[in-house]
Amino acid sequence: MKRMVLTALLVLLCLSTPTYAQTLDEAKASLEKSEATLSEMGSMNFSVSRINDTLAEAKNLFVSQELINESGGKPDFSLVLAKTREIEQIRKDALGAYDEMMALEKTMAGLTDVNRTLMDSYLADVKMEFQNERYDKTREKIDAAYARISEQQAFATRLATLLEAGRRNVAGFLFYNWPSLSAGAVAAIALAVVLRSRFSRCRTRRKIDALLTEKRVILDLVKETQRLYFDVGKIPEDTYRIRVKKFGELARDIDRQLPMLRAQLQSGGLLKAG
Prior knowledge:
The chain is built from eight helices and no strands.
């Protein structure tokens, strides 16, 4: 009876422990996949120094484990698999950061009420981090750029509010002091007020148009991503999910901004129904 139990335990142990051939084949397959990843990233003109270095380490580990086996030792190909998983994570981080960077660039291209020089410098910082393969830093820079955009848009809104307050003050001044003003001065002030108001409203219209254009671009990007994933099968599922999620966030942000801008025009009676 004891011999039967011992035999059963040995059989279970053999079944649960991967054989040398199994782990060897798995390591070879993972190295081949990493080679394909390297080619893919290179074809997209991404920097591949990190993948190159990690792949070289994985190959060295593979050779060393084979030598250990040949010398009668116990090889551990999990070290190789750990390196190839690291390569796949680098790829995932790179693709995610790239999509976010492209979305940021398209967003900046559609802005009209921000300092263009500052926007270009923010984008240059993002691209530098991406080129240096610091993808976590790339995302941090992207978040910082969106924060700066919001700050500049908020400043533009405050400026427009001050201009509107100034318009009301001028109107009140004219009402109470019109007898003492010459006709020419009244006309000049009135013209300045009208022009300033029209400028503010035209700027709001341009911002609405820019946001609508940006949303159309984002929706086109979503459609193209869906086509590449479902119809062509050119992009992997994780890339598809990352892109669709980011594009959705950008579209929702636009949907939050549009009602406020339209309300500004409605308050001036300049937005047509529908």
